[in-house]
Amino acid sequence: MPDGTPPNKLVEVYDLKMHFPIYGGVLRRRVGEVKAVDGVSFDIHEGETLGLVGESGCGKSTCGRAVLRLYEVTDGAVKIEGENIADWSAEHLRKVRPKMQMVFQDPQASLNPRMTVASIIGEPLDEHTRQSKKDKLNRVYHLMDAVGLNRDFANRYPHEFSGGQRQRIGIARALALNPRFIVCDEPIAALDVSIQAQVVNLLEDLQEEFGLTYLFISHDLSMVRHIADRVAVMYLGKIVELAPRDALYDSPLHPYTQALLSAVPEPDPSLEARTERIILKGDVPSPANPPKGCNFCTRCPQVMDICRQTEPEYREVAPGHFTACHLQDGQPQQQQQQQATDAGQPAPAQRQEQSQQGEDT
Amino acid sequence: MPDGQLPVLDVRDLKTVFRTRRGEVHAVNSVSFDLKPGELLGVVGESGSGKSVTMMSLIGLLPSPPAEVRDGQVLFGDNDLLKADEDTLRAIRGARIGFVFQDPMTSLNPVFTVGYQLMEPLRKHMGLNKKAARARAQELLELVGIPDAGRRLKDYPHQFSGGMRQRVMIAIALACDPEVLIADEPTTALDVTIQAQILELVKELRQKLGMAIVWITHDLGVIAGIADRVMVMYGGQIVEHAPVKELFGNPQHPYTRALLGTVPAMHGTREARLRVIEGQPPVLDAPPAACPFRARCTHSFERCERENPPRIPVGPLHDAACFWNPATGGPRDA
Ligand SMILES: Nc1ncnc2c1ncn2[C@@H]1O[C@H](COP(=O)(O)OP(=O)(O)OP(=O)(O)O)[C@@H](O)[C@H]1O
Ligand SMILES: Nc1ncnc2c1ncn2[C@@H]1O[C@H](COP(=O)(O)OP(=O)(O)O)[C@@H](O)[C@H]1O
Ligand code: SF4
Ligand code: SF4
Ligand SMILES: [Mg+2]
Ligand SMILES: [Mg+2]
To answer: What interface predicted TM-score (ipTM) does this complex get?
Structure first.
């Protein structure tokens, strides 16, 4: 993104909540709820990749699906190009759906085994367009070219392909209707290391070629560092930190982000010996029964009394750097992000304090 | 680890084939390695490279048919495990050689309590009575860091989290004080912060108990952190083998070199583009007559099509199955 021009927000998410009911007892009455996503807010700028990381069950997939309104959300607003999609009728949603697509983790499970590759990739065209058979087939061929699949494979079935190739089929299908925004939910998690790089490069090429915007969900922190422009870290249904990539990786502010990053094993034995690893105790609490106060207080190495009482506020503590932690309570709230960056005066004193704090942890 | 020590486990020329309706799958091709007392041998390779089949072949855990261990020797103490009868194997499995598998839910029995599953091998292999077995079971759960161990013995596997189940599996594998622990992708299904807990635990247990460990993973980072020595597998063969620092610092096989290049860094410069290994892993439908990596190798030449390279010594305790010499950029004399 060029400096100076304020980025254009393609997706805006405000205080999004997705709670799933839990039924129990003989009468199958509603006895509680899983707070899978519990009040998250973020923007995604046009043409950028926002990485969404966090551990299993923290709510990444639910968040991605809710943003595409594949769920009736419990609360909050999602705006795409300034329009609140929560207000959209089913009919209107159907019309705009092609603009927003999803690529799934398990390429095997998300492709119909009884359909040929051509019919899988062409299916969205059947549903949403009235192209002639010939035009459709041409489009399918172009899509296959774009994702690096040999046209000769058009009449084969998914089981005849490798995992990486199946993921290419899923991506080609997602591209069929010229989407602007794609939620990639762990698109490489089921693939081998040597194949992961192929798929990530492909996603990057397609982004450049078609000006795509990605929400890239992953638990692979080194891959997210490679692909994302900004990164959001989720823990137990909430975003605990969101920052530009380098700020997040080089000077994480939230104790959970710090622990998460330090836990990634590095393929370098000499570095490995030097790394100070933060080992968290215990497990993630259940999202049906999150702790009082800060969600991370049961495992946080820096927990204070206030953390068990009061939930920390999610706020911007440095330009573009958001976090929710009482350790930041002394930090003044940033001006509106936009104003701060536009005016070109991102309060240098505060910034320094921030980065120092990041470094000595 | 001092070289020259007698190995606890010595595997020679292991070949395992699956007979399927579509023909044979040559899953393991002439794999040889040994394991010294107290060392941790890392095994890396992508899925299908033969890591699990190799280890399951060692102690007769593969169903036959379709599996057939066609050749080789597995020397463990006075026994060749490939010739041993089922009773001998059963006495060795779980007692002298412990196992931990990738998915703890499939290897723990959901209908028995964790306490029962811990006590059973203690009573069967060590002849402990119920009371002694319970005391030892509690001790083992404490050893692997499960809080409130006494009470948790009465719980069923589904009452534990994924990370705790993996700890329980490790406790079971350690129950009879094995000489060898084989861990097949024990942290692959776990989150990184939980994986970090388990890796820390293993480092601790090695110091306390001193058994030899084979640790299988596809994660180069995990290997870098815990292994003494590493074998890299590709297409059912060991393509490179070296002490851990040597392997990461001076990789010789084109596959190892490419693999190290595909993992993006957590620190320092970010490459604009990820390096890739083009193509797909090999189909193992025949015994190898050429280098298994040749179709994806950027250095392959005519000889690689004709011959399957043997493991060529390339340095102290370091060998690579490749005809190409990265130092000269030309063929290796061999
Ligand atoms: N349809 C549903 N009904 C009830 N609970 C659900 C439903 N979908 C998800 N959950 C719960 O919501 C929480 C968040 O789930 P989600 O799938 O979003 O996690 P995730 O971060 O994508 O995890 P992973 O990394 O394992 O994919 C989990 O506790 C999950 O069990
Ligand atoms: N039951 C089986 N029948 C046929 N082929 C099998 C069977 N089990 C494993 N294989 C094949 O053996 C090879 C090695 O598999 P495996 O050892 O499980 O790989 P890894 O553990 O390295 O991922 C693969 O080609 C796999 O498809
Ligand atoms: S608010 Fe308290 S418990 Fe939560 S992350 Fe910050 S220091 Fe830790
Ligand atoms: S033997 Fe030839 S094809 Fe095989 S890895 Fe070496 S150079 Fe490449
Ligand atoms: Mg998910
Ligand atoms: Mg395996």
So the answer is: 0.84
